[in-house]
Specification:
Number of helices: 11
Organism: Cyprinus carpio carpio
Strand order of the largest sheet: 6-5-4-1-3-2-10
GO cellular component, one term: cytoskeleton
GO biological process, one term: cell division
Distance between the termini: 88 Å
Oligomer: single chain
Helix content: 40-55%
Order of helices and strands: HHHEHHEEHEHEHHEEEEHHE
Pfam family, one: Septin
Radius of gyration: 34 Å
Main location: cytoplasm
Strand content: 15-25%
């Protein structure tokens, strides 16, 4: 840097003058002060990267805190609010008659929750068309309340001609999305919007031991785009262990060959821990299940099982069937994730589609422009 001191020295040399020590000391002091000011200005004009807004966020862990803050108490607050309000879970069961849908649902929730079980003087009739019916219950366990809605699909796959038998089911699922969207668009929205959206569809496959039928492929291909589908092999005790293993492998091959998306999808895994857990589930899909609501004595203990000439098939014994895996997935490990996928993926896809349609038509989407669903359903509530 060419300083004022050097300029002064050059001028003095040209004039033939000698600088006296006091003058030189004062010059040096003045120059040093000016250099310090310039450095401070440079620091202000060019702040260090650590002071930028994007880099101000840091991680303060427990050992760095001065004392107890109480952040963990938020979990207790959330738990109390959830226990007071309760939550909802809507499950749809689809499959032809005689596959044990009602029995399996009763086994899952260890109570008479199926439409068949809670309807007085129920008569089994084969419906000529697919007619959706639902029944709701409030189930309470250890202070936690859950409103469970089971949607049944009598008549599905029971006709000689099953063409388009999935259309009423697709229509029902979309109508529940439409109903929720209408509530969201209201100016004065409810504090808590009633959720009738289908969170999971359990699809029952007959234990043929062969390949998927055309109706199975077509149904799961269409429904897999709008709802979380979980295929199960019904009445798996009719197959030997070797037959069951081969059948499961064939079904997985068919699902992959036809591009059928079943829950849980790989693209929805949030982290490595989820991926490891879900990979184990994907390896076991479809679950080979057996359902029953009858108890038997086995080694002095009461167990749910089916009694045969050769012994008792224990429903919750993973060596006998995979019911326990299905139960854990639906209730104990992935129930909230099923609801999140329904809301954040399937419902969001439907909502964006409807908004785009309204924009393309030049119509502002509002509750007045939305039509109510026409599909009837009978809802009966009981407290267990």
């Amino acid at each position: 840097m060419y300083t004022k001191l050097e300029q002064h020295e050059d001028t003095a040399q040209e004039q033939g003058l000698d600088l006296e020590p006091p003058v030189r000391m004062e010059e040096e002091k003045e120059v040093m002060e000016e250099m310090e000011v310039e450095e401070r200005v440079v620091e202000i004009e060019h702040p260090l990267p650590c002071l930028s807004e994007s880099d101000t966020q840091g991680i303060i862990k427990g050992r760095d805190l001065f004392g107890y803050v109480g952040i963990e108490a938020v979990l207790d607050q959330m738990r109390r609010k959830t226990m007071k309000a309760g939550f909802e879970f809507n499950i749809m069961v689809v499959g032809q008659s005689g596959l044990g849908k009602s029995t399996l649902v009763n086994t899952l929730f260890k109570s008479k929750v199926s439409r068949k079980s809670c309807t007085p003087n129920y008569e089994e009739k084969i419906s000529k068309t697919v007619h959706l019916q639902s029944v709701s219950h409030i189930i309470e366990e250890k202070g936690v309340k859950m409103k469970l809605t089971v949607i049944d699909t009598p008549g599905f796959g029971d006709q000689i001609n099953n063409e388009n038998c999935w259309e009423p089911i697709v229509q029902y699922v979309n109508e529940q999305y439409e109903k929720y969207l209408k509530e969201e668009l209201n100016v004065n929205r409810k504090k808590r919007i009633p959720d009738s959206r289908v969170h999971c569809c359990v699809y029952f496959l007959p234990a043929t031991g062969h390949w998927l039928r055309p109706i199975d492929v077509e149904f799961m291909r269409r429904l897999g785009k709008i709802v979380s589908i979980l295929p199960v092999i019904a009445k798996a005790d009719t197959l030997t262990l070797e037959e069951r293993l081969e059948f499961k492998q064939r079904i997985r091959q068919d699902l992959q060959a036809n591009g059928i998306r079943v829950y849980p999808q790989k693209e929805y895994d949030e982290d490595a821990e989820d991926r490891i857990l879900n990979d184990k589930i994907r390896e076991n899909i479809p679950f080979a299940v057996v359902g029953t609501d009858k108890e038997h004595q086995v080694n002095g203990n009461k167990v749910l099982g089916r009694k045969t000439k050769w012994g008792i098939i224990e429903v919750e014994n993973i060596a006998h069937c995979e019911f326990a895996h299905l139960r854990d997935l639906l209730i104990r490990s992935h129930l909230q994730d099923l609801k999140d996928v329904t809301h954040n993926i399937h419902y969001e896809t439907y909502r964006v589609k409807r908004l785009n349609e309204s924009n393309a038509n030049g119509v502002v989407l509002s509750p007045l422009t939305l039509e109510n669903g026409t599909l009837e359903k009978s809802d009966a509530e009981s407290h267990l």
